[in-house]
Amino acid sequence: MNKNVENKINDLRKKIKEYDYNYYVLANSKVSDFEYDTLLKELEALEQTYPQFITSDSPTQRVGSDLTKDFPSVKHSIPMLSLANSYNEDDLLDFDKRIKNLLDTNDEIEYVCELKIDGVSISLIYENNNFLRAITRGDGTAGEDVTNNIKTIRSIPLSVDSNKSKNSSFEVRGEVFMDKEKFNDLNEEREKQGLKLFANPRNSTAGTLKLQDPKVVNKRPLDAFIYYYYSSNITFETQNDSLQHISELGLKINNNFKLCKNINEVLEYCSNWAEQRSKLEYEIDGVVIKVNQIKYQNELGNIAKSPRWAIAYKFKAEQITTKLNKITWQVGRTGAVTPVAELTPVFLAGSTISRATLHNKDEIKRKDIREGDVVVIEKGGDVIPKVVSVDLEKREPNSKTVIIPTECPACGTKLFAPEDEVAIYCTNNFCNAQIKGKLEHFSSRGAMDIEGLGESLIDLFVEEGLLKSVLDIYKLKEIREDLITIDRLGEKSVDNLLEAIEKSKQQPFEKLLFALGIRFVGAGVAKKLVRQFENIENLELASQEEIENVHEIGKSIATSLINYFSEDENIEMINNLIKSGLKFEIEKTNEVNNTLADKIFILTGTLNKFNRNEAKSEIEKRGGRVTSSISKKTSYVLAGENPGSKLKKAENLGIQILDENEFEKLLGVI
Questions:
Q1: Which residue has the higher pLDDT, 421 or 265?
Q2: pLDDT at res. 591
Q3: d(CA 249, CA 242)
Q4: Poorest-confidence range of 227-231, 290-294, 418-422?
Q5: Which domains does the chain possess?
Q6: What pLDDT is recorded for position 637?
Q7: Phi and psi based region of residue 594 (left: phi greater than 0; alpha: psi -120 to 50; beta: remaining)
Q8: Tens digit of pLDDT for each residue in 579-600?
Q9: Which residues fall within 8 angstroms of residue 302, CB to CB, at 6 or more apart?
Q10: Is 116 among the catalytic positions?
Q11: Catalytic residue among 15, 116, 314, 361
């Protein structure tokens, strides 16, 4: 009897999975909604009666019943890099020349062109051919676990056919998005319910992935295209082969990709889709161009944040005209006072725009922008709205040129205009607008990641006099009872906030250094400084020359750091943050040493025991550096299978060549 039930359950699952694949991946429905729902209900009834037969890949397990209270951070096995951007044909031709120079060849390079989906990047982990985990891109090194929400996307299989899978454990990456028509349907339904409308499909997708209730997520029209496959012991010869295997596994790929024999075919592909993009059912903002040969990808390697073997071709931004009603001046965390155009709301590139940047006072003068003008706006990189030009024929006869403020619009302090800059500054460190900006930056996700301490709450706390500096954040626990009495908060909200503040103390030194908001010290710079100086005291005492000697750190950054640490109030704040329990030093491990200090490595060919990022990480842990260009300064070349032309160059220069066993001995791991 039980065997018959198990067979019936398996047959139902097989049918439902087949129908899901046909409908959600191939867009070819084989049964009516009624027939599909009948099969699903029959399966649910059998599984409820015989729960011993429930498996994780059953179609009934897509929507969990439990709320997701937390989205834990998970480190990526391989960093999720961003792509370098190009905006015209010359950029792409330069990219092709660069590839040929690095590969030392005059032969035509094959490229795979894929549409650049305007969505949210995701990593999917499969083990034993079953879907295990989904991780967002995050900062590229680690992302958030959104497994329960991703399971609701029916174009993502909960298991793959073991007969078709080349390896039972693998990772795929792709883009989660919303179909334009389904997004509009979603907004229409929200409008009927009196709910706030979503701005655009991408923002709606990102917000949906962070919802706590999978049942709500299940009602949102999420979909996904997959474009990348990785497994530790499977290597494809080409990107084209990789895409074909992804499709064979039952994962949804974007079939508009094309294998191009040379850069001219790439240019033609980009031109065609720039014209046809509006005809697609989903939003795209460009084309991704990848070197097809995997061995070339390995030889070309990566720079800090991007692969050398791929580039994004961004379509020219869409433009539209609207009226500029007023110019306001906002104060940032550095005290810079910048102009903003307040516009008559207009829909552009997927969202409604009511404000746009005017950059600075010189830009206003150069373009002769005035209040009341009809202006042309576009989204820079399809993200940040900006005013491109003025329609002078529609200018009102009584319009007046813009008066540049001489006093801070937030605190009234006289503004300062450095001779060598176009910006104007408020020099009052106690200006509420600056304080708010610093607090927002400090608590943001890329910095201290204090969940719940957003713009509205910071505004409230600053106006109430509860926050005057970032140090005050860690004193809020002392006034818990007072916080509970504030409107819109309450006991649970306050306790969640205080818990998030306490949790932020575990953020690593590099995040904390970035959070301080030191001018020119972005996330990447902070990481380099932390790796070099290891703790805040060493950085405080470093000379200008010592800071400039750090790889890729220039004079402007060094000067900014020297100036920052020369201010007594900054030193006092850092000391108090240390007393509050924040980490101003890197966590040492037994692995970290300086045995490869000042050694320069080149990686070439396909590695078996390491992937390239792992090898690079091991080298950098020990004080070494990985570069792409071989020279007399190169210390070692680590050569895997099918090494490129760099191996011959190394031999000619007499540089020591290592195989993987010799590399492991050098690392001290064998």
A1: 265
A2: 47
A3: 11
A4: 418-422
A5: 2-61 (1.10.287.610), 85-314 (3.30.470.30), 319-413 (2.40.50.140), 429-504 (1.10.150.20), 509-579 (1.10.150.20), 600-667 (3.40.50.10190)
A6: 92
A7: alpha
A8: 999 999 987 654 456 788 888 9
A9: 81, 308, 612, 613
A10: yes
A11: 116
